[in-house]
Amino acid sequence: MSEKYKFDTLSLHAGHVPDKETGSRAVPIYQTTSYVFNDSDEAAALYNMEVGGHLYTRISNPTISVLEQRLAALDGGVSCIACASGMAAMHLVISAICSTGDHIVASNKMYGANINLLQHTMPRFGIETDFVNPNNLDEIKKAIKKNTKLVFGEVIGNPGLDVMDIPSVAEICKENNVPLVIDATFNTPYLMKPIDYGANIIIHSLTKWLGGHGIAIGGAIINGGNFDWSNKKKFSTISGPHFALDGISFWEEFGPSALTSKIRAEGMYNFGPTLSPMNAFHILQGIETLPLRMKKHMENTNELIKFLSEHEAVSWVKHPSLDSHPDYGVAKKILPKGAGSVIVFGVKGGREAGKNFIESVQLSSHLANVGDAKTLLIHPGSTTHSHLNSEAMRSAGLTDDLIRLSVGLEDVDDIKKDFEIGLKSVLKSR
Q1: Phi-psi region at 236: left, alpha or beta (left = phi > 0; alpha = psi -120 to 50)
Q2: Of the candidates 102, 152, 283, 147, which has an alpha carbon nearest to the alpha carbon of residue 207?
């Protein structure tokens, strides 16, 4: 779709025109595993990536293709791979770029599953990671080695809401000829496009705000097309000869889309973390209302920050829009439309008070997710991190009293009334 169209229009139209055979305005759900070839030559050409098209849904599918084109358009990328989950997206990127003996530099303030993958799983395959403070530029510079193949971080860290200085980190990566991979789940392309600030590869959990309704799990990799993979010694998996496909070099054959082609030909083909066509359809429906939802998310977030900051049962509130946040300046620079709709705050009385709050609210949902249309809460101290003592919690960047709030789209007055119920229980428990 033409670049002249703005974000709201692209969220509705990018990647799709009405179906020629039926006139369907909605994106059809191609619930099929495979596709009939016109002849043997066409089948061979599809397998060898000589022509575009679909041969097996594990690799590509027409419904999923619309989603991929729409996401690439919204994030300003050249191409996209949609897959089964955000974690699958992360694994696909690593496996496409890294091999045994390679090294990664990653933020130490990000989603726990990301850290687990890098700290415990990838070393089994000979890929090591050094974790650094995402906004300590000297620390990032010093951590990069000759065998470093990528730098990884989150725009807005989960759950601590640390904000990475993407432009500055991107400049370091450029100087060292290393791609910057950014998880942009918490901001979505509506609030900020990391590629505009120098990032090379974007990862999304489509499960969260992009889908927006808690009904479909999915992930995506957006290729910025702005990284030079030509160093055959350093990036042999992309610029060197492939073991199949007549030994092609993805970089020489596909240029800016080299990474995407590599992941589709190898990652999707060999690992098979396929997004279902039905889930792709559900996520597309979410994206159609993304601009409207994000505006409401941010309106409610701003109201609740004020409400919580003034409440006698709340000891502290953390959000990048507050001038008390250590990354306030960075957030103001790269997230002018808002720094996401997740708030973390502390209730007076510690772990037991946090448990009382969670179990007292009635409208808000207590579960381990974010980015839903509905307001979601979790108290890590009594749930996901209940096995940790206070010292171990602090080491993980958490506190006994911490509540993570994913702000929904309900009338904000109703959310406040619900929180009052929970916060009254906090005061009673003191």
Answers
A1: alpha
A2: 283
The 10 Å CB-count burial string (b at 16+, else e) for 231-247 is eeebbebbbbebeebee
Residue position matching structure tokens 């495979």: 34
Say if residue 49 is in the same domain as residue 131. yes
pLDDT in tens, 51-93: 889 999 999 999 999 999 999 999 999 999 999 999 999 999 9
Q: Are 248 and 386 part of one and the same domain?
A: no
Note the residue count of the chain. Answer: 430
Strand order in the sheet with 128-132: 79-83, 219-223, 201-205, 180-183, 148-154, 103-107, 128-132
Range of the domain at 203: 7-286
Question: Strand (E) positions, 121-195?
Answer: 128-132, 148-154, 180-183
C-alpha to C-alpha distance for 91 and 419, rounded to whole angstroms: 38
Q: What's the CATH code of the domain at 90?
A: 3.40.640.10
Residue 2: inside a domain, yes or no?
no
- Counting the structural domains of the chain, the total is 2
pLDDT in tens, 52-62: 899 999 999 99
- Of 235, 260, 286, which one is at a domain's C-terminal end? 286
Type of residue at 16:
H
Give the residue from 239, 260, 286 where a domain finishes. 286
What 380-387 contacts at long range (C-beta under 8 Å, 24+ apart), as own/partner pairs, is 380/159, 380/404, 381/350, 381/351, 381/354, 381/355, 382/351, 382/354, 382/355, 382/358, 383/358
| Predicted structure pTM score | 0.95
Strands 103-107 and 148-154: parallel
Residue 117 lies in a domain: yes
Q: Measured between alpha carbons, how far is 302 from 338 in angstroms, rounded to an integer?
A: 9
| Domain of residue 423, CATH code | 3.90.1150.10
